[in-house]
Amino acid sequence: MKSLRLASILAALVALGAVAAPVASAGPADRADRALKREVSRLLTMPNGPPGVAITVQRGKRRIFLDGGRAVVGTRRRIRSTDHMRLASTAKAFSGAVALRLVERGQLRLSDTIGQRVPSLPSAWRNVTLRQLLNHTSGVPNYTEAPETQARLQTNPRGFVAPQDILDGVTDEPLLFPPGLRYRYSNSDNIVVGLMAQAATGRSYTRLLGRLVLGPLGLRNTSLPSGFRLPRPFVHGYDIEPGRSPEDISTALSMSFVWAAGGIQSTPAELHRFMRAYGGSALLGRRVRRQQRRFVRGSSQPPGPGRIDAGLALFRYRMNCGTVYGHTGNFPGYTQFAGVSRGGTRSTAVSVNVQSSPDAGDPAVFRRLRRVYGLAACAELARH
């Protein structure tokens, strides 16, 4: 990878397939599906648009999978529901699931502070609570914006970073504001959540993830790597710049750099299954779900559809057609969105193989992608 191309990627860190089952009527669900397919077709034909897209929409027991474009540029292969990919910041919902399951078990409390659980972190952060980390009201500075982090990635993008060293670039920094005062999305928050989970149990975050989330949900193709490789077959992720050929950056960066904040790899099918459980009612009990859904005004990164509020590692997206709960994420080569209805019976997951956000890639592409998010969410909520 050319150094200038890599620098631009690091700076960015701060034709449709067939429906799986035939549609029998021209009711609201049919119209919603058609509107979604039209918008995806427009997205795929945009200059600087994603090479490929995969969308799952489920209404009750009826599920459709839409695949368009290419999983690998220069081939005819489409994205399959079992292909591996980077989950980007939707992985924050997984670290939230680990923490909240520990809360259910009494091994963590939402009122536990950084000072109590991880006293090795800066004393200036000591009063920040687990709740404030999970809803991004902590004030902990974002380590991915630190010059030291950027320099480390520039010199050794595939190198291993130990979890306790990820925050080195901001450990000399004070809080950005008093804890709980306001909302500010920070990748540091979920790194600290992972460290608190480890400290509370004496087990690694990877082991906790497997025992508390992946195992119970049967997510056998979901994992947290410490290196840069992806299991085959995988959706190739690309950097797209005007006037240049797409560059494959699928394995350009080590996942140890993002760890509990974005390092998970999975498949479209398993991302969808996880969000149905975490955003619905299958993974957490009623008492903890009530805490999970205490919302403050905020925004996911990148923004999802509609008006956005932040809960505990879960966002609420309110649209004219209804409300879904989920998470978004973007990372070099990949952008994700998954959302579920309140009861978990209706859901969607959208994956594209290019990074797209208001600050990464073509802004016009992201605006259309965000419309796709909204149409996918409305399709899941549509009545037959």
Features:
alpha+beta; Beta-lactamase; globular; 8-stranded antiparallel beta sheet; 384 residues; 15% strand; two-stranded antiparallel ribbon; 12 strands; single chain
Short structural description:
The protein is an alpha+beta fold. Helices cover 32% and strands 15% of the residues. It has a single domain (3-381), classed as DD-peptidase/beta-lactamase superfamily (Beta-lactamase), CATH 3.40.710.
Describe this structure in words.
By secondary structure, the chain is an alpha+beta fold. The chain has a single domain (3-381), classed as 3-Layer(aba) Sandwich (Beta-lactamase), CATH 3.40.710.10. It is 32% helix and 15% strand. The protein is built from 11 helices and 12 strands. The strands form 3 sheets. The chain has an 8-stranded antiparallel β-sheet with strand order 2-1-12-11-10-9-8-7, with helices on both faces. A hairpin with a 7-residue loop joins strand 4 (238-239) and strand 5 (247-248). Helix 2 (28-44) runs antiparallel to helix 11 and helix 3 packs across helix 8 (205-217). The longest helix is centred in the last third of the chain and has 19 residues, at 363-381. The radius of gyration is 20 Å and the shape is globular. Mean pLDDT is 94; it is low at 14-24.
